[in-house]
Write a structure and sequence with these properties.
The chain has helices at about 5-10, 15-30, 55-70, 100-105, 105-115, 125-135, 205-215, 260-270, 290-300, 310-315, 340-345; strands at about 45-50, 75-80, 90-95, 120-125, 140-145, 160-165, 190-195, 220-235, 240, 250-255, 275-280, 305-310, 325-335. It is α/β, with parallel strands linked by helices. It folds into two domains: about 5-225 and about 335-345, 3-Layer(aba) Sandwich (Rossmann fold); about 230-330, Rossmann fold, CATH 3.40.50.
Length: about 350
Amino acid sequence: MRKSHEFLFLLGRLFSPLYALLMRFRAFLYQKNFFKRTKLSVPVVSVGNLTMGGTGKTPMVFYIAKLFAERYKTALVSRGYGGSARKKVNLVSDGEDIFLSSKEAGDEPRLLAESLPGVPVITGSRRVLTGQYAVEKMGAELVIMDDGFQHMALCRDCNLVLFSAAELLGSAWVCPGGPLREAFSALQRADAFVITGVNASYMDKVDEFTATLLASFPEKPVFLGSYKPVGLQEAGGPNVVAPGNFGDISFLAFCGIATPESFQDSLVGEGLAVKEFLSFRDHHSFVQADIDKIQHRAVQAGCDALVSTAKDFVKLQSFSFQMPLWILKVELDMEVGFPEYLRKKLFC
């Protein structure tokens, strides 16, 4: 956690208990049907988290869509965080054509629209409306709700809560005094937990946290997932190249994601020669001046090329690069048993 975040959390701890109480009361009102909840005519799977920041929701959404899209007409609904589109229903993609830029749709919806041909992507703050649109207008037989754990107005058939192996909880304080969106007890609403980004260096912490989850919620399964690099793709190029084919080429790596450590770990794990690593804030809006500084830093460090993430690339395509830019393609690799768990929850 960055030092600036720690300082802000310290200041916010006076208000943390009040916010936690309000969130608990809100959940109670939904549970007792004081607030209306809507159930769609098709299965809904929610991918969410308890913490602020990155837990691998986008790779998980991609994984679920790939798992079911060949058999069931699948649609994705998202809030569209960071996007400028403000209609109640914003059609990012109908599964064939993409209609909104990353600035309009948000980084993740645009990335998913590019990565999931055949899967409509829809944004809007009210998931009931976007979910209904997906079913009625797009013919969806399965709706994936991105970042949906706190959005209880739309009923779901499977409620997944994700944690990042790089951070896990770290603190029991609720916002604004810590990184939690709700108190730990809110996890009772989940159907299953997924820990993403698991590798050998995190296993001791992962085992300890898994034991904590199972002790608190013994009826809810815990699944582990790791990020599997599938290769690098040159910006604008069609082919994906295996990391082992880069020989002595040295890179400056840069990203603007919530967990830059996971990107760095993936590069190092694939044996790429990374001389410099630059991280920007999550959802950073790059400008040409940023690109020029990055390339200047790369030249100073003696780098041959640049490498970034697929999420960042949706915002980089309009800029001018004098150096080769490569994009690391990564997929989520889930443990045996998780696909069958999803099938039973959603279609049995």
